[in-house]
Amino acid sequence: MQGAALFAAGTAVVIIAAYCATYFIGSRGMRTRAARDIRLRDHFAVSKDKSFALVEVRGRVYLVALTNGGAALLDTYDLAEFEASAPAPAGRMSFRDALSASAREAGGLPGFIASKIHRRGAGKDEPGGDGKGDGKT
Length: 137
Prior knowledge:
Elements: H1 2-34, E1 38-47, E2 50-57, E3 60-67, E4 70-78, H2 79-85, H3 95-105, H4 109-120
Antiparallel strand pairs: 1-2, 2-3, 3-4
């Protein structure tokens, strides 16, 4: 009987020590994360495995398309330009609404994405291309 009580007490001590260690390590990890230069400004899921994200890195904002196959950079903004073009806080627009408005202006989401790809530099086979692209879109 005394052996069972010692076993239960030992198990409780191990569980409490594991909890304290996990809590300590987890809180240290959160502090180091907060000091990094990368910040997720907004995220919009288009489907289960496709989404868009606005990521801020050292004074620049990147619009990124994310899929299971990887990520593609769609556009880049200076933080000052991005903040200046953002609606006033009272009428602040969500990322979903901003993306929808931009897509409507470009004639739908495929037109919006195509306009961003062509702006970066079209392939040599396409009109307006600089000849440096690989011909893929």
